[in-house]
Amino acid sequence: MYKCPLCEMQSEAFNVLCSSHYRKHKHELSLPDYKRQLLIANDRIPPVCPVCGLETTIPKGEKDFPKFHKACYFQKIGGVNNPNYGGGKLLVYCEECKKPLHKHVSHLQRDKKFCSTSCAQTFYGREENWTPAIKERHAQASVRMKEMMQNPCLRQKIAKGQARAFKDGRSQFEKDVYSYIVLAHPDAIFSHQIDYYVVDIFIPSLNQVVEAQGDYWHSLPDQASKDRGKLLFLTNKGYRVSYVWEHEWENAVDKNQLLSICLNRVSEYTLPTIDLMVIGGVSGSGKSWVCSQLSDTFAYVEYDKTPKKDLYNSIFIAGISGKTVLVDMHNGISTFIRRAGGRFNISLVCIDESLDIIQERLTKRGGVLTDSIIKRTRRIKKLAQQPYCLFSGSSQEVLSFLKSR
User: Over the chain, what is the mean pLDDT?
Assistant: First the structure.
């Protein structure tokens, strides 16, 4: 039980006296002084710091006296003066992407060396990197799934669900692919469950899975990562996996020939190739005008009007048609190219106009040539010197260059 040193208030909780009750005495004592008197009044004597010999004070947010002053601890006892000091941070390399990083010795003893969660997930996504504990968990999950599938009631529910999905839930594209496959392979099963995955079509005689991939849904980055995990699981189980893409199906003259090619194709999950052209330039450089003039031959995605979380998906959707996608950007160009380089075939074209022309265009629009725009023009000049920049010039020169491609 704690008793307030300034009145008769008592409470079992130290924080109650130091928060709501202290408001009554905030004009009499500061909060650190009030905490100090509260502890002393309740027979809590402040200890003496063994380094400097002075009494310790209560740090902000704490409710008791520390043994040392913070500065004294790090000066005399912490760090290299600590007998348990392990040498600080060491330079190590990520086991997946080989990126250099610094980690404490104590962390290396219990953790693997990864620079990010995505690298760790990619590393452990390959079966050869699984630890005995991970292998045991996968084995137990597979056994539980097999035991569940032996339940006749569950199997009956799955069968009903498959029939209902065939009528309602499945796309017409998947049904069309199945109708062609079942003519050549009568044992083909539509919407078949393998452990905790449901595949579009399964051919038991070939031990082969056929996935009908819609261009829109399966081109989204989040769904693509799930599909790669599904492929890894199925191939590790010994199944052959083939993909039939919607754009291939629609453009095929002979559907049976396309299916023959797809069934014999190596099971590698590859997204449709998207060619991306980034038009870099500051406000008033004419990048939007250039993109609008090329709307017939290119697919245009407006960077400023597209939410950043939907930018990648918008580029995928625009590029499915086979056209090169244009994106006009005025800042963050190098960061975007570095992050999106693994998803698209990226090229860069820079619009480098003089400041007089930019100021004239901004004045007509009611804008002003600010210092930030001047700084961005310098960045555009530096980007134009990078090896991945195809061309740099005025807006008219850039338009002529892109029309000639």
Answer: 79
Q: Does the pLDDT value for residue 131 go beyond 80?
A: yes
CB atoms within 10 A of CB 391: 16
**Which has the minimum average pLDDT: 3-7, 81-85, 328-332?**
81-85
Q: Helix axis angle, 255-263 relative to 172-184, nearest 10°?
A: 80
- What string of DSSP letters covers 84-103? T---SEEEEE-TTT--EEEE
pLDDT > 70 fraction of the chain, expressed in percent and rounded: 82
Within 8 A by CB and 6+ apart from 328, the residues are 279, 281, 287, 288, 290, 291, 302, 303, 304
Q: How far is 211 from 129, CA to CA, in rounded Å?
A: 27
pLDDT digit string, tens, across residues 210-244? 988 887 777 676 677 778 778 878 887 888 888 88
Examine the pLDDT at 145 and tell me if it is beyond 60. Answer: yes
Beta-carbon neighbour count of residue 174 at 10 Å?
Answer: 23
Question: Is 159-263 a CATH 3.40.960.10 domain?
Answer: yes
Partners of residue 90 on adjacent β-strands: 103
Topology alike, domains 159-263 and 275-403: no
223: closest CA among 301, 347, 304, 317?
A: 317
> Contact at 8 Å (CB) between 211 and 263?
no
| Nearest to 380, CA basis, from 354, 360, 399 | 354
Q: Which is nearest to 57 in space by CA: 279, 65, 164, 43?
A: 65
Phi and psi at residue 253, in whole multiples of 5°?
-80, -45
Domain boundaries, the chain: 2-81, 89-124, 159-263, 275-403
Angle at 9 between CA 8 and CA 14, to 5 degrees: 135
Most confident of 148-152, 319-323, 396-400: 396-400
Identify the CATH homologous superfamily for domain 275-403: P-loop containing nucleotide triphosphate hydrolases (3.40.50.300)
- Which residues sit opposite 208 in a β-bridge? 203, 240
Reference 351, options 321, 308, 310, 389; nearest CA is: 389
